[in-house]
Amino acid sequence: MRKRILLSSPLIMIAIFGSFGLKRPVNTTLPETLRIKEPTAVLYPQYEIAPMPQRVAPPFLGSSYVGFKEALAFKESQGNYFVINTLGYLGKYQFGINTLQLMGVYNASQFLNDPSLQEKVFMTNLARNKWILRKDIEWFVGHKIHGVEVTESGILAAAHLAGAGNVKKYLRSYGNYDTKDAYGTSISEYMRKFSGYDVSRIMARKNPRI
């Protein structure tokens, strides 16, 4: 009797597992209400971001370097790595082609699709501007121009906006030369808005490249 049971056990197991394959297939037809009838939009805007009420400022990061770069990025692009504005400035920090080439970046498409490269370019450009403005940082930090205290972070933010040369003119004219970008943002506004961040980790470098 035991021998008969042992011989029949494999047949029983085969029958059990085989039964799973004999079940009627489940109906997998997609309901009409779930069908996609139009192309899905891809997150790759070609023009300046329109103000969106649901966008919020970046998390509070204090006066750290990370707080500085994220606040500046939010002002520039609302923190979007993949945006191109109406003037052709690219990415999270809104770099122009000429500045990218100074950093050693010649492929705009690669730059736009590589967040880590954008972060490297941002730090490299800060180091370059800090070198160009090293004397002005030494001379003017701690003084006030039109009621706004001059700080190192304010100087570097303004240089990101208008270029180091224009910031030199602003400082050495004691605010009388206050140029604006194409959207009407002035050097003095960036000097005020980005005052007081700790950017000491940025080392001044002459002609740095990626």
TrEMBL record:
InterPro entries: Lysozyme-like_dom_sf. This is Peptidoglycan-binding protein LysM.
